[in-house]
Amino acid sequence: MSFYYIPSFILVLGSLMILIQLCFKRRHSFAYLTSGLSLLAALFLQLYLQKNESLIEPLFTFNAQTSFISLLLFMIIGLIWSQIYHWLETLSEQKEEYYLLFLLTALGGVIMVSSNHFASFFMGLELMSLSFIGLIAYCGHDQKAQEAGIKYLILSAIASAFILMGTAILYLQFGSLSFSNLMQTPSIQVLPQWTIVCAIIFIFTGLFFKLSLVPCHLWIADLFEGAPLVTTALLATLSKLAAFIVLWRLMNLGQWQQYQIIIDIIVITSIASMFVGNVLALFQKNLLRLVAYSSIAHFGYLLIVLLLINNDKVLFSTQSFNTQTLLFYLVAYLFTLVGVFSILIQLPKVKMLDDLNGLFWHKPFIAITLILLMLSLAGIPLTLGFMAKFYLVMAAISQQLWLLLAALVLGSTVGLFYYLKVILAMVKRPKNDIAFNNLLSDGNNLSLNILILFLVIGFGIFPTSLSQFIQQIAN
Description:
This protein is mostly helical. The protein has a domain at 265-475. The chain has 19 helices and 2 strands. It has helices at 6-24, 28-49, 64-81, 84-89, 96-114, 118-136, 143-174, 193-210, 220-226, 229-254, 260-282, 287-302, 319-346, 359-362, 364-378, 384-398, 402-427, 443-461, 464-474, and strands at 55-56, 61-62. A two-stranded antiparallel ribbon has the order 1-2. A hairpin with a 4-residue loop joins strand 1 (55-56) and strand 2. InterPro entries: NADH-Q_OxRdtase_suN/2, ND/Mrp_TM. It catalyses: a quinone + NADH + 5 H(+)(in) = a quinol + NAD(+) + 4 H(+)(out).
């Protein structure tokens, strides 16, 4: 057995230990520590494996890029995990099962980002999706959470059905479920060309749902608002990271850009997601719905990366630079988003923009942290988000994607307005301080806020070390 599988087996072992504990005695602290130690061990082992040589197997691909993405995934999950204990203590629900589902969701994401075969991809996808159903509907007394869980169950099943249908058609034509063997010219043309295009569109539809891209975005705001906050953070980061990496790998290995209609679909979806996401976020008064629509726009920006793969119109960039763009943007956006959710978890009474009124005067450090995170999401200079946008703009210019570049600039300009709305709400004089009475703030949360600020602002001002590290991975 390869060492590359050990981080996943550690997560399996942690899940089994929690299951065994549930058979004898429920103990919240044991489940918390077991899940945390499992994630920590997996993270350090993944860091060690970063320097190992590449390994390609029938079901999985392990190289520097997949190792880095897995490492990023473990870091994000670890930051979210650090918020769980105090949040669960405020609930009347049984607590241990949440950690079990949490680890299984992480395991599904790790499987997806390393998958090189539709069988392994679908196994990871369903493990993650089924775990998310339980995590979303975990608060049994919350009607919104139950509705969100049912909605995710139905729509996730429909998305999986689309992916399965597309996979079946591709298998009928090419006789293989391996990503590496996609689109290889078969000895006999079993199906007409238009059916292959339909199969790709089916798979795109399923993955666009997971990424909440237009027009598969209608579920995202209701789920962000209805699901528990920690689950929402996991859904916005882990689920989307895993789904986008699979989409990127399929485009890389499948050579799907040879079909002009596929390119057109990506361009239209990207522009529509930028426009719809930013415009809808502009009119939101609910913070979680604002973040939900903002995420649609950000992954609309990121779709530009798919159009950089094997593009003939290259001015000065290379494929390695395009990979750097993808990895840098994912690092910047996901860490910033985890920071935003960390602040919202510490403010359980804050639901609407008006609830933030006076936060700067009551809790200045938390307010300053949230302000800087919002500036990073907006792409303001001296933040990590600005460097991510800079990479994306340079890559788009190098491939002469002028229409998408114009949409990116216009969408970012619109986005600046609703991020400023959040900032202005915090500096207003408060009518009352009820929203800040039940602040879930302690030394652990303070340390987490400082760490996230260091990542977002530190690498924004001094991005060289992160850029060089990602450059080595991309090469």
